[in-house]
Amino acid sequence: MNGISKQIHERMKKIEHLGIAVHNLETSNMLFEKLLGVSHYKIEEVASEGVRTSFFKSGPNKIELLEATDSESPIAKFLEKKGEGIHHVAFAVEDLEAEIARLTKEGFTVLNKTPKKGADNKLVAFLHPKSTNGVLIELCQEASSPPVEWGME
């Protein structure tokens, strides 16, 4: 592994999950339960983002289904424009603030320069698709302990 590849590997630990925008979470949960042969392990609302999510594990991988709870939310706008489908690819990082600074310096457009509370006990930031070949990239770092108001199930 060359120096650059090793640095990237250390910063972007793994694909944390794939986010899929859906019109109806219950219907989609049933579909993915049939597809994967497992039930979702969590349903959670992130009121600040106008979204309700559910998570599935498939081997070492996770899938996040996202349903809009607010017609003005980013998920609602995505569904209106593109319909159901892959919304984002999320990468796990050790130090989200350091990655935001590094990627900003590298010329990527970071949509939120300050980490936000996300679903599944994560702090998150997003990279604009115009700077990542059309793919919305989420960077996520495990939060130390989730506050009660995060609405964990």
TrEMBL record:
GO molecular function: metal ion binding; methylmalonyl-CoA epimerase activity
InterPro entries: Glyas_Bleomycin-R_OHBP_Dase, MeMalonyl-CoA_epimerase, MMCE/EMCE_epimerase, VOC_core
Keyword rRNA-binding: no
Position of the signal peptide: none
Keywords of this entry: Metal-binding
A Pfam family annotated for this UniProt entry: Glyoxalase_4
Residues of the VOC domain: 14-142
SUPFAM superfamilies per UniProt: Glyoxalase/Bleomycin resistance protein/Dihydroxybiphenyl dioxygenase
Family: Belongs to the methylmalonyl-CoA epimerase family.
Protein name per the record: Methylmalonyl-CoA epimerase
